[in-house]
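Work Package 3 (structural annotation) set out to generate three-dimensional models for the target panel prioritized at the project kickoff. During this period the team completed the workflow that converts sequence records into discrete structure tokens, so that structures can be stored uniformly alongside our sequence database. As a representative example, we reproduce one entry of 178 residues exactly as it appears in the project archive.
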Amino acid sequence: MTSEAASPVTDVRVERATVHDGEGIARLINYWAAQGQMLPRTVGETYENLRDFFVVRDGDRVIGCAALHITWADLAELKSLAVDEAIHSRGIGAALVHACVEEGRTLGLERLFALTYRPGFFERLGWQQADVMNLPRKVWNECYRCPKFPGCDEIAMTLDLDPLPADPAPPLEASTSA
């Protein structure tokens, strides 16, 4: 997961991932997996879930990624949040989280969750600690296959989403007949 977002960058451009980003996303995720900070993902898994991903690029190189994975009608997981270690603390992680939160709101989700070793980062963005056992769809769909289950040491974080305001109905125009 990313490090703290101490000094935000104003020119961070978060975009939807494309097929050209798959290997770069896998590279970032697996770098952090080798550090014990997240679970590894194969390049194949990355491509299978590519539509979930947002990225930040430096030229053609992926320097940050995050995925919003829907788990149910009301719930999605923010996962695979990773930023190149050389550029931590520049607001890239926060920008990626913001993109996922906005996507969740757009989709009409009620809550997002993340599993992390960096709860302070998420708390600064308004998330709250939670008990992972209160996320049964995550536990029984994915966690039980993890080598760390049931002794997971990641911290569950949740964010309740406010619904987007409804667009006011356009005014009805009076019909005139000739």
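The helical segments are 22-34, 43-48, 92-107, 119-124, 136-141.
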